[in-house]
Design brief:
alpha/beta; two-stranded antiparallel ribbon; 48% helix
Length: 396
């Protein structure tokens, strides 16, 4: 159970913290590449605040806009080209996980002669990268405080994660007011993503992580309480602040230090995004309850998984502790479905979003191989045949 815990990201949290951006960027150089998506930061005024800070600090601004919701390798290559041509000193990501993930790959590619997809697909260690700073505008992926990024190649239908200590942002600016403009559906998808990050660690083979389990349960309860409130009251600072801070701590390494088991639902969902370019959080909301039912149906003789679901039901959803273990386990899955589909209003099946079974076999095989072997070696080993059954269950 030994581990190393090191988060080198300096977080500026709260309203008005953007006023520190110019000084923080100046630490890393004078040429800044601003990376963002479809332009929502311009509509909300965040862009103007960022530019004012960059100009006020006497820095040179370069821009890369149009980063996709699932960042594409082509966009990252454009960013790398800008960095090399203009001798960029620091990458500044403004937006959600897509802009931040793209910036991480751009930062690595700018310091390498290898093509970025070669680095990702062959898992070439990143030994040098430009410093990264982020301005968060949606609570979801936690990329503002973690060392991981995900890149999509739609030509090969691949979506690959990669981690490096150099992917930790040097500084992240987390102002809950910057998320007021996030719509109800995006808030719902982001909240599903946060919850999934916690579940992937909570449901694991290590059964004696009492302190971390209680922390994760508290964070899950936070998402369950505040996500619907943020959807109905978009400018509720308390709700937005709680979701934002939970998104960072759900995946910054704090909860996962003692859990070495690979995640299960993320590699299964990544194939849906790779083939159909769907919103990651929505895919997780569809996959997760089916995965829960599948692993519960294949429990061991001791009922180890049912026991964990029982704790989840009692401690997160307030199910009566006197409820039988197996019944509580089933109720836990039902509560997750109710939260995703009724309270958050997310689509509940692949059929509802126009996805059929035509690629299930290939997707299942790729998902099973994502860890370098023939299965996802998580809470329950998932071979291609298992994953295909989970996809089938997601149809309706």
């Amino acid at each position: 159970m030994s581990f190393v815990y090191d988060i080198p990201t300096k977080v500026f949290f709260g309203e008005g913290q953007i006023e520190n951006l110019g000084a923080q960027l100046s630490v890393y150089g004078s040429r800044v590449l601003l990376v963002y998506g479809g332009g929502s930061i311009k509509k909300t005024g965040v862009y103007d605040k960022i530019v004012a800070q960059i100009k006020g600090a006497g820095l040179e601004l370069y821009e890369l806009s149009g980063i996709e919701p699932n960042p594409k390798v082509e966009s990252v290559r454009r960013g790398i080209e800008i960095c090399k041509k203009n001798k960029i000193d620091v990458c500044l990501a403004a937006g959600g996980g897509s802009a931040m993930d793209a910036s991480k790959f751009i930062a690595a590619g700018a310091c390498s002669d290898e093509d970025i997809w070669t680095i990702v697909s062959k898992k070439i260690p990143v030994t040098k990268a430009l410093p990264i700073v982020t301005v968060l505008t949606i609570s979801a992926t936690g990329s503002e405080m973690d060392p991981t990024a995900v890149l999509s190649n739609m030509q090969t239908n691949e979506k690959s994660p990669m981690s490096s200590p150099l992917f930790f942002p040097k500084a992240s600016f987390c102002d809950p007011t910057f998320t007021y403009s996030v719509g109800a559906n995006q808030t719902a998808c982001g909240s599903a993503d946060i919850l999934s990050h916690l579940m992937e660690v909570y449901f694991n083979r290590n059964q004696n992580l009492f302190m971390l389990d209680r922390c994760m349960e508290g964070m899950m309860k936070t998402v369950i309480k505040y996500a619907p409130l943020a959807m109905h009251e978009p400018d509720n600072y308390e709700a937005r602040a709680n979701l934002m801070w939970t998104s960072s701590w759900a995946i910054n390494g704090f909860t996962s230090g003692c859990n070495k088991a690979p995640w299960s639902c993320h590699p299964v969902e990544h194939q849906l995004s790779a083939y159909y370019d769907i919103t990651h959080g929505l895919g997780l909301a569809i996959v997760t309850p089916r995965w829960m039912r599948y692993v519960l149906a294949n429990d061991d003789e001791q009922g180890t998984r049912a026991q964990k679901f029982y704790e989840f039901a009692v401690n997160v959803f307030g199910i009566d502790p006197s409820t039988g273990k197996n019944q509580a386990a089933e109720m836990a899955v039902e509560k997750v479905e109710e939260f995703f589909y009724s309270k958050l209003g997310l689509k509940k099946s692949l059929s509802e979003i126009g996805i059929g079974r035509e690629h299930f076999s290939d997707m299942a095989k790729k998902a099973a191989e994502c860890g370098g072997g023939d299965c996802v070696n998580g809470w329950q080993k998932l071979y291609a045949a298992d994953i295909e059954k989970i996809y089938e269950a997601c149809l309706n």
